[in-house]
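Course assignment 3, question 2. Fill in each field.
Student: A.L.
Task: Predict the tertiary structure for the chain below.
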Amino acid sequence: MKIYRKTPLIPALFSTLLPILLLTASPTTLLAGISPLAFGSRDGMPTLAPMLKKAIPAVVSISINGESTKKIPEYAPQYRLDRNSSRGNKKPKPIPGLGSGVIIDQQLGHIVTNHHLIEGANSIEVTLEDGRTFSANIIGSDKETDIAIIQISTDQLREIEIGDSRLIQVGDFVIAIGNPFGLGNTATSGIVSALGRSNLGLERFEEFIQTDAPINVGNSGGALIDLKGRLIGVNTAILAPHGGSVGIGFAIPINIVKVVAEQLIKNGSIQRGYLGVSAKKLSHTLARSMRVAQRVGVVATDILKNSPAEEAGLERGDIIISINGHLTNNPVQLQNIVGLFPIGKKLNIAVLRNGHARTLHATIEHEERERISGNSINPKIDGVILTSLSPLEKNSYGSGGVAIDSVSSETAGWKLGIRKDDVIFSINRQPVTTLDEAKSAASLSPQTIIIQLYRGNKIIEIIAR
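Answer field:
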């Protein structure tokens, strides 16, 4: 089974459209335990039509044209890469792609969608439910959460009502709205199958809503709404053997979307700081050994020197219960909470130390990183700026590496296929965890440089002679 993004290679053409079946169970079974206010009624039968008439106009279809020089394996684990499916390192060529977006501000024309959909786009065209089309500008985009904000200039837009993903529960009915296969806005139904899904290898910050509402190619950036028409998530991926829906889809919770969107609109990018703590889950065995009655929180395993965590007084062995009221029941939640807070954010950290509860205070800080040019390593990667990994990134990649901070277009590094946010872990078959190690490894063979790097959850090898 593979995890797929839902951005298509080419819009599919169909001569017939299968009818969308919303909530086909019997009314008695279906409505048990659900407020009748969520439904309209027509001829004595429940219907979601009145709610969908309000929600669907806030969902848009997005068409992009971009360029790709990526070398893609035959079976790409993420569908977003399949639309760039030229084999080998060829010259950039226009790549069409379709997806979805959701209007979150009708006055300013702000639309939330997925980063992977608009990444590398030369042009973005937005089609509204009423058929109007507009060119869109990118306001900001964040690869780490796969969230992007684009903007169109027009009036008579309808924004969606924003929900609260903290309130949803497994079993809640949901509706997915998007642009599957280029068909235009389509609504499908299901339930919340699971919450807090992580370790899928899609993003650094993962806490997905899982749903069995059918989600297909082209739904990237579309809406996941509750039965009152409130946006609770942005659809981003599916788990499927061949790219089609088998009832396992993933959406980014709206509460994460709101935090990221606010920063993107304000700054155009996300400036992440760090806390400086590593942690592991509080297992049954560990809880017993620490004489903790309730298995809640994560255990601090390492505190970086001179970090905000150390300055706050956090110690190894502390059980971190929550940060600013957000529970930290596993390391992923801790990473997401800290990683989504802006630099300068004040944190109240609730911990349990030797059986006693206490609250520590810290401030998210910016971490200065060393940067070097690719030319200083080897002229064959000129135009590349390399930087050290943050503590958070080191935890994510395990073995470490050096990150690509930027790549200037049409330079030697760009033509090799190196891209921003790649993480180099080997040069000339030598492991690389620091910038000094990168320089040393490159000097072993000045005429040829062999680079191995991570791009998302893929490993890519680049050879320059």
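Instructor remarks: Residues 1-268 form a domain with the Thrombin, subunit H fold (CATH 2.40.10.120). The CA atoms of residues 389 and 402 lie 6 Å apart.
Grade: pending
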